[in-house]
Amino acid sequence: MRAILYKNQDQGFILSDNFERGDSRPDEIDVRVNAAALNKRDEFILQGMYPGITENVILGSDAAGWWKDQRVLINPGLQWGNSQRVQSSDFNILGMPTHGTFSEWVKVPQQNVYPVPTHLDWEQAAALPLAGLTAYRALFARGELKPGQKVLVTGGGGGVALLCIQMAKAIGASVFATTGSEEKRGRLKDFGINGTVNYRELEWDKELKKAHGSFDLIIDSAGGDGLKKLIGLTKPGGNIVIYGGTKGKSDGISPQLIFWRQLNIMGTSMGSDRDFREMLELVEQHGIVPVVDSVYPLEEFGRALERLKSKEHFGKVVIKIHES
Q1: Strand-pair category, 316-320 with 292-297
Q2: Count: domains in the chain
Q3: Cα–Cα distance between 74 and 109 in angstroms, integer?
Q4: Do 115 and 154 fall within a single domain?
Q5: Are residues 208 and 185 in contact, defined by beta-carbon separation less than 8 angstroms?
Q6: CATH code (residue 295)
Q7: Does 283 reside within a domain?
Q8: In a domain, 305, yes or no
Q9: Is residue 272 situated within a structural domain?
Q10: Domain CATH code at residue 204
Q11: Quick one: 84 and 118 in the same domain?
Q12: Residue 252 located in a structural domain
């Protein structure tokens, strides 16, 4: 079958036309993949910036396709474990070290397969699993967001961030976002957001606070020097949930601000099986549609990856593998 393989650090990825996957385990089923979506972890793996990298592994974590005449999507998180608070030591994600979704077929445990929400097409369904799960857990399981509260989402053009915005709006929260692009800022306003700011402006945090005040919850994917500004934007007793660190380590943070204002700073990554089920229920109930930036055939995976790396995308970059 055709598949995108991580070959090694010298070659990066290759398109194989006749990859043999091996035998299935008793608990596994075969899903015929119609569409699969890229994530930042695919980029990090190809840059050698991911733990436990193994050669000759099919990349990709997100997918939607057919199983037994049913339209299904896949929870890419494997072996989360029994605790709702934290993943088990056996937890791993499709696409490294387990063969992933950038292929014509994917083997997954049957318990990780769910019906596609009826209002989504193939590309939208493929864009949902990893980003939707991450967004849901950050907002609700960790951030404890309630209707009427104010939430700030950083990096407003990314796939997870946009789903955070959609989910928060769906439950009646007031939603604000940062972005590094005036073009994306305009698109976010058209998205029905309550307020935006360009984080490339020197005093963006002061501008945001003057216009909109402080926030009950902040969802961050960047870290770096911006984290100290987010602490200053959080209401006393408020929550900051971090699911990414693209800007690296954070310096200059004042512990006094954190303890005196009773702030809660939390990490989150992916989510439990229960989080995934509840996320799908929310998406179905409110008709939430993941934003798809662009769609490429499997043969143009390199172009899709460049689109992701360019940071110009607004929403998810998707690979189309089968038409129907």
Answers
A1: parallel
A2: 2
A3: 9
A4: no
A5: no
A6: 3.90.180.10
A7: no
A8: yes
A9: no
A10: 3.40.50.720
A11: yes
A12: yes
* Residue 51 main-chain phi, psi, to 5 deg: -70, 150
pTM exceeds 0.85, yes or no: yes
Q: State the Cα–Cα distance between residues 216 and 149, nearest whole angstrom.
A: 6
- In this prediction, residue 23 carries a pLDDT of 75
- Whether residue 93 has pLDDT greater than 90: yes
pLDDT of residue 79: 97
22, pLDDT greater than 80: no
Name 8's Cβ contacts closer than 8 Å, sequence gap at least 6.
Answer: 55
Q: Is the pLDDT of residue 196 over 80?
A: yes
Hey, what amino acid is at 102? F
Kind and range of the H or E run holding 273: helix 273-286
Which range of residues forms the domain containing residue 119? 3-128+290-320
User: Residue 311: is its pLDDT beyond 90?
Assistant: no
Asked whether residue 138 falls in the same domain as residue 198, the answer is: yes
Secondary structure (3-state) at 188: helix
Q: Residue 15's pLDDT is what? A: 97
- Distance, in Å, from the CA atom of 244 to the CA atom of 221, rounded to the nearest integer, reads 4
Q: Please answer whether residues 262 and 237 qualify as being in contact, where contact means their C-beta atoms are separated by less than 8 angstroms.
A: yes
Confidence of residue 129 (pLDDT cuts 50, 70, 90): very high
156 with 187, same domain: the answer is yes
For the chain, give the number of residues. 324
Q: Where are the alpha helices (H) located in 118-272, listed in sequence order?
A: 122-126, 129-136, 159-170, 182-190, 204-212, 226-233, 255-260
Does the pLDDT of residue 323 top 90, yes or no? no
